[in-house]
Amino acid sequence: MGLNKKYLILGAAIIAVVGVASLKTSPKNIILNTSEDCLKGRDAAVLTGGVVDTMNSPPKPGCPGYEEVTEGDIGTYKLGPYTFKIPRDYLWQGKYQEGEVDSVYLLIEYPSMKPAIKQFSEPGWQNEMNVSLHYKNTCPETPCERYAQIHYETSALNDHNPTFKTTISAPVFAKDYGLNQYTYSLGKPTQEHEVFFSGDKAKPDIWYICQLSVTSPSCMSAYKLKEGLWVRTNYGHPLLIHHADIQKNLNEMLNSFIREK
User: Helices (DSSP H) in the chain: which residue ranges?
Assistant: First the structure.
């Protein structure tokens, strides 16, 4: 069905950033009442929060979103005291809405560190990283200063619902990754997870939670980039062997986007 239809059915994956195990959810079909002139020659995607145009040219005058558009290839985003100048090709949500935001979401290729997509497509986890930036110093010290630790506790340690934890293995050293590793099974039907970490198991310095019981296994992590500024990553399990290089290159890239006063 082409984009020139008045009623467009888009099958897309709604990606939720609030999950603790994976950013992917099941595809859904949604019927959109759209304008033929507004959609002609442009793609649209179903994302959390509604329909967001993902092409690089802004919406046309009179089309939804036009009044919120800022011209140009670079977007300006402010998270707390940090101002980011980010090429729009990296952004997969909020592509044209600039100014003060709660979070910024990017899709990045590895190892090139180029934009993973120029128009919306469902991640397949071959060589792409889902990256989100969050500023968390606008609330009391707890839980803001425990942002990454809370994600780890509620998922890997499953502190929020221990009755669903079925098995958990003793940590072993995973030489290929240079990290300790343990496995746990969660829920009914059982979902297998691998956890890779360094330091103390209860309060690790670095950690990755990998969901295995899915078609495209992926690994999630969270860590602090700067004071109050947190990074969440999600990428395919085969890329985990490059985790140290990924974090180094990603941090250099994100810091290059920041324009501090």
Answer: 36-39, 141-144, 147-155, 243-257
Q: Are 133 and 231 in contact (CB under 8 A)?
A: yes
CA-to-CA separations, 4 to 32, 44, 55, in angstroms, rounded: 12, 12, 16
Alpha-carbon span 228 to 39, nearest angstrom: 39
Q: Which residues of 166-190 are buried (b: 16+ CB within 10 A; e: fewer)?
A: eebeeeeebeebebbbbbbbbeeee
pLDDT at 163: 66
Cβ burial, residue 24 (10 Å; 0-12/13-18/19+)? buried
Query: CA 60, 64, 65, 69: dihedral to nearest 10 degrees?
Result: 20
Tokens 């967001």 identify what position?
52
Residue 113 and residue 234: Cα distance in Å, rounded?
15
Supply the pTM of this predicted model: 0.72
pLDDT score for 72: 73
What is the enclosing helix (H) or strand (E) of 221? strand 218-226
Position of tokens 């507004």?
38
Q: Are strands 172-174 and 191-199 parallel, antiparallel or unpaired?
A: unpaired
What CA–CA distance (Å, rounded) separates 103 from 124?
A: 23
Assigned token pair, 132: 């989100």
* pLDDT of 111: 93
Give the neighbor-by-neighbor strand order of the sheet with 82-87: 82-87, 74-79, 99-100
Q: Could you tell me if residue 4 is left (phi over 0), alpha (psi between -120 and 50 degrees) or otherwise beta?
A: alpha
* Distance from C-alpha of 191 to C-alpha of 147, rounded to nearest angstrom: 24
* pLDDT-above-70 percentage for the chain: 62
